[in-house]
Amino acid sequence: MGLFDRLRGSDTPRVAFVGIDGVPHDLVANHPETFPTLSAIAERGSAGAIESILPAESTATWPALTTGMNPGATGVYGFQDREIGTYDTYVPMGRDVQATRIWDRVTEAGHDATVMNVPVTFPPQRNVQRMVSGFLSPELDTAAHPDELRARLEELEYVLDVNAKLGHREDKADFLEHAHRTLDRRAAAFQEYVDRDDWDLFVGVFMTSDRVNHFLWRDYAEEGTYHEEFLEFYAQLDAYIGEIREALPDDVTLVVASDHGFTTLEHDVYCNEWLRDRGWLAYDDGDHAELGDIDDDTRAYSLVPGRFYLNVEGREPRGSVPESDYEDVREELKADLEAMEGPDGEPVVDRVVERETAFRGDHDEIAPDLVAVPNDGYDLKAGFKPRDRVFDADGPRTGMHTFDDAALFVDHPDASVSDADLLDVAPTLLTLMDVEYERTDFDGASLI
After folding, report:
1. Average pLDDT of span 434-439
2. Which of 289, 333, 345, 431 counts the most CB atoms within 10 A of its CB?
3. Who's near 82: CB < 8 A, 6+ residues apart?
4. Model's pTM, two decimal places?
5. Phi, psi of 72, deg, nearest 5
């Protein structure tokens, strides 16, 4: 038990959650020498591969993980969502998350929560002990609450996110340097607030791993130029998790999880260009750049990643698909997607899932009609700017997200990570903390 707990006389079990964005379980399992900390957690407690959600995109996955609810309940489906009844789109922020976050449940139960660098939490909440927002935050000045936290993070030279533009260069030296700097500053901040020992729930997310995977995955998978640097980065990440683990008082359980897996990217697939080629989508003129530029005859359009919407009468402002034809047209589009072939004739899509299967909840009005899960190697893009081809193999990114092979490590002997998914994390954390909840509060279930 930590000093603060001894002073306040609390017997409440506590939890530290560390997120490692985009780290696949196989990467850890295949390199135990690179991941001694995570391997030790797997041996003492339980660990395994878990499934992500649809779509497996960080803007949607972190709200799902931190609420235990699917996007139909969180209201966040991806990096770009559509306003109801319009062709306007927006980038979801923290206030767009409609389901209850785990730190809100903990706070409502009378406990304290420190939340650091979780994606889609900007602006920082003022009802929790302290918070610095993560991915999608514009600047540190507005991303941290209270002011004491902001001031201290500035002193620590905290970096909100790695400069991904550096990853577009052929020479990755500057990108790697900035990735390590971001990782180092993040770890220093996490360590300082872990050491304060004044919280009941600590949540901190390392997102730099996702960035490194996007730009260096092929080097890792094919033992390319930056293979060793890739593994060195992960050895340092594991070491930082090890330092946090060592610093935790005896009454704290450590849980580590990623939000999706990763694999080698072979082709970017521009789905709206594919829809245009197949006669599903048309534009008003050649100067198009956004969803509102589609023509009235458009029957379907796509938003990243792999989300497909019918242009339905009465739902979209200029819908062309009658509601009476909805099911037939959707089946036609589903069949087209399932038959999509890559440049060498191989299938692009592994499966196509209907909205009612993938999503449920009070905020499913903007849910896609279909979600396509790609086969490994095909990254489903969207965008509405003119393209001269559907498939592109010349982009700077060499890694892509996967639905399967996310990772979960629970440093507790009673845990059982088996047949689990992302939605099981939140109820597991509350169970570890002895915070009561109703079974229907979550789409997942506790693994304890």
Report:
1. 96
2. 333
3. 88, 89, 291, 303, 309, 366
4. 0.95
5. -65, -25
